[in-house]
Amino acid sequence: MPRSLTIRKLKAVEIRHLHNLLEGQISTCQKRRTEAILLHTIGMNGVEITQVLEAHPNTVYADLRAFNQHGLNSVQQLRSRGAPVRISETQAAEILRLAQIPPYELGLPYGRWSVAKLRHYLIKHHVVRAVSGERLRRILKKGVCAFVESGARS
Question: Domain containing 54: what range?
Answer without folding.
Answer: 12-76
